[in-house]
Amino acid sequence: MNQLKLYGMHGAFKTAIETGKTDHYTNDQFMAMLIQSEWDDRNNRKTERMVKNARFHYSSSVEEIIYDESRNINRNSIIRLADCDYLNRNENVLITGSTGVGKSYIATALGHQACIEGYRVMYFNTTKLFARLKMAKADGSYLKEMAKLERQHLIILDDFGLQPLDNQNQLILMELIEDRNGKGSVMVTSQIPVKGWYDLIGEKTIADAIMDRLVHQSHRIELTGESMRRKKKMVNDQKS
Asked: CA 240 to CA 238: how far, in whole Å?
């Protein structure tokens, strides 16, 4: 079994033999148990691989999202996004709100759920991604980097808009959004409301083209309330 790389089946078989549970199964039940163990093991390893490749900066899950009324989070909307059907329709998700309200947490949770469902995901701090792609243009690896991004089902751009875009970043963002239009999804988190993204992008023609593709058929999550980090710190301080 190990030589055939049936590691899940091998583990289940070994455990069953060692614990004497083989007598509890009929032949077909025992075979079904071994096959199910192999399936679960392969699926778990695939998910671990996809999560690793996504390079999330945070650890979060949809099950742990706090649906506080003050945060303006609709539970049904999150549940619908968690089924990942928006990825099949190549729709985007735009998450806005002030610092610390949980934008990155929710984006990571939805990204992690997409990995579980078998979708290819990559997570980026937007500023670092732009710097990386600028370097790629300089060393000749730009087309390779863009092709890698294009293969993903979901690209997460975290902390978009921390600084205005220069001409080169405007064109990079335009190409990134254009490449994904109708072919893949983009999830964006930003402290700036969506209506302020036009001024952030800068050049009107490019801004119109980007926003038309980004906002069309997008899901919007507009978070409100106090900083979750501040709340957590206050709770910890009270406990100590």
From this structure: 5
